[in-house]
Amino acid sequence: MNVDLNSVRTMDTAQVEQGIRRILEQSLGVEPDEATPGDYWEALSLLVREINLDRIRNTRREEKDGSVRRVYYLSLEFLVGRLLGNNLHNLGIYHQAEKATASFGVNLSDVLEYETDPALGNGGLGRLAACFLDSLTTLNVPAFGYGINYRFGLFKQGFVGGKQVESPDAWREDSFPWGIEKPKRKQVVRLYGQVREVDGKAYWDDTQEVLGVPWDLPVTGYNTERVNTLRLWEGRATEGFDLNSFDAGRYQDSRFREILAENISQVLYPNDSHPEGKELRLIQQYFFVACSLADLIARYKREHEGWEQFTSKVVIQLNDTHPAIAVPELLRILMDEEDFVFTKALEICRSVFCYTNHTLLPEALETWSQGLIARVLPRHMQLIYKINYHFLHNEVEKHWPGDHQMKNRLSIIEEPNNPAEPQMVRMAYLSVIGSHKVNGVAALHSSLVKQKLFPEFDELWPDKIVNVTNGVTPRRWLANCNPELAELIDSTLKSDWQSDLARLGELKVWADDPEFQKKFARIKRDNKVALASVIDELCGVKVNPDAIFDVQIKRLHEYKRQQLNLLHIMAVYRRLLEDPDLDVPHRVFIFAAKAAPGYLVAKNIIYAINRLADRVNNDRRIRDKLKVIFLPNYRVSLAEKIIPAADVSEQISTAGFEASGTGNMKLALNGALTIGTMDGANVEIAEEVGEENIFIFGKTVEEVSDLRQRGYNPRDIYQHNEELKAVIDWLASGDLSPDEPDAFRPLVESLLDSDYFLTLADYQSYSDAHDRIVKAWKAPSYWWRMAIINTASMGKFSSDRSIVDYCKTIWNIGL
Ligand code: 26M
Known about the structure:
Blueprint: H1 13-26, H2 37-63, E1 70-74, H3 84-91, H4 94-103, H5 108-112, H6 124-138, E2 143-148, E3 156-160, E4 163-167, E5 180-181, E6 187-191, E7 194-198, E8 201-205, E9 208-220, E10 227-237, H7 248-264, H8 279-303, H9 310-313, E11 314-319, H10 326-337, H11 342-352, E12 353-356, E13 367-369, H12 370-376, H13 378-399, H14 404-410, E14 413-414, E15 424-426, H15 427-434, E16 437-440, H16 443-453, H17 455-460, E17 465-467, H18 474-480, H19 483-493, H20 514-539, E18 548-553, H21 562-578, E19 587-592, H22 600-617, E20 626-630, H23 636-642, E21 648-651, H24 663-669, E22 673-676, H25 682-689, E23 695-696, H26 701-710, H27 714-720, H28 722-733, H29 745-754, H30 759-777, H31 780-792, H32 799-811
Parallel strand pairs: 1-2, 1-11, 2-10, 11-12, 12-16, 16-17, 18-19, 18-21, 19-20, 21-22, 22-23
Antiparallel strand pairs: 3-4, 5-9, 6-9, 7-8, 9-10, 13-15, 14-15
Helix pairs in contact: 1-2, 1-4, 6-32, 10-11, 10-13, 12-13, 20-31, 21-22, 21-28, 21-30, 27-28
Bound molecules: N-[(biphenyl-4-yloxy)acetyl]-beta-D-glucopyranosylamine.
The site of N-[(biphenyl-4-yloxy)acetyl]-beta-D-glucopyranosylamine (26M) has 23 residues, from helix 6.
GO cellular component, one term: cytoplasm
Keywords: Carbohydrate metabolism, Glycogen metabolism, Glycosyltransferase, Phosphoprotein, Pyridoxal phosphate, Transferase
Organism: Endozoicomonas elysicola
């Protein structure tokens, strides 16, 4: 980028120490010798915040000339994780802070544990947004993230008798020094009301108004003084006379408005695959979109005259369809407030919006009933019809003249099969039609988006749908979470792999070196010892750090197939019971996953794993050869402890269902070997590491589709696979839950009656792949060679590379 923010000024230990002392004494009012680790956390955070604020002002000043195109990343989720450690690393003062806290007699890593994770996301999509902000800043791209400042993030998960229980996570009620309220930048958002037309012009009146107040989080990058902004909106009631009104009707209205406003940013919806058409969710979507567009337009107007340069200065990335209402909102602003004609307004929309698709699951594709949108956002419903009419009668008609079926198929409005049902608005179609590029998140996924999800759009606009393979930030997911490995890499490569991850490739020459292998294995073991103590603390189970740590960490979903892992562990346990002298390495199977609160089968799977864990972990007969752990409350900070300690990474989704996966990249980066299907980014991981360094199993996308076509009956497999039949019968028998014999009925029925995700079809192949893992583990020099090659081959999966791809193929930004 043309602005020079690359010279990093640093602080020495004495300056950090002075800073901490000053803030402890003058801001927190405590003496250093009386301060708790929590006080140190707060003091250090406030010190970092001072530096960030300076740098944010510099960044602004350097951008004032408006010469650059800004990226606006609109997302209902940003799973940023803890910020203190990350900021210290980015500022290059981590070691200074370590020494400074040590001089006060406190340990920096204990201090960092005080921070609560801002849980503003469900999983992959939210974490991807956070990695992208890190990379945008690191690459010096001027960028804003826009989202919602939820009071309650994703629920906290606990287990009662092995069953998931949810409790609210009021994450920012504890001290959170990172957010800075910006009341001057507040926005008014209108809802409900009606549209009048006078002389062909639309007026949207009688609306309910709510306020959006922004709350800014500084986003620092690696080796740069740029600080970008994550701007999160909070709903507030408008001040105003209605509250004092004695008029009963008006009083009701104003109370309604107040309640509505305060509800908007209360909770993050905890689903990640099954949108329920809830009015408040639609309002959340519109609320943050309206605030964000008004905010970015105001910024544009402060920097430029007229609208001519708008499309060259602004690009807006829609993170899934959740912000899709931005398309009619920008159209509304351009037509109703700025007097553009429809065609010109649509052209502008189409040159600033881009849309990322994250799922092919049909039930996950968002639709809203026409009636709901018409009631909450009447003007937007009109504009959606207008976009649709233009699209169908000009664009579709031109390409497929007279083809009514095609118009039906591509209409933004889905006509119901049953006339008693409502018309539905397809948000994915609205997003495709309103954007200039649409991308999938891994090569396989993008080709399925073209072939299965939007084949007609791909025919109509052959250059619109593209691929950008996901990535993860190597700063958080290697340098910060695995400092020992980072140091080994530093001392081996002597090059800046953190800002050019492809450099890791140079490690390959060391893969067979016994000394290097020893160091690599030693680090893994240290990390496993550390995880073992977390496991003991959280689960009260002692695990052997010399066992294979086999991990599956991700949201719980049938397509991700934790149940396949479960069935296999049950089989391993049975084999051990049959022959306790079996010559097999010790194994620890580690799970962490939240289930959506309304997803019964997912919760049933959690319960089954926990009951099995209870049984296995207390069975003296198998002499600790097998342990099963389900860590509660999976979140970013827990991932940072599990990932560096993993030997095996479970990426076992039904082929064609996992859009990309990003945990797969983080685990391989930290030297775990993948057992996985040819799905999502696993395909590209296999390509990078070579098929001899990964355990691939199961049906491919083509084989899945063939099998379905032939007619799949899970009972055939059940009848013919003795071991599989035995474990399913055991699960169904009630033996694992004597107090509730039918407890696992939902899971067993799902497996035997439909098995939509082909768990049984892939079982034997999965079990065989595990046998190959055991064999490889028994030859350590072979194992560590593979592990090193995995770390060395992850260069492609840096989110820096993803952002460079977005800049080139989607945003038209030169770097
Ligand atoms: C929708 C409507 C109402 C409430 C919630 C939602 C919703 C929220 C999150 C739906 C989907 C959500 O996330 C999906 C997700 O995380 N997808 C994952 O995205 C990753 C990043 O691209 C991919 O790596 C994963 O494969 C994909 O499952």
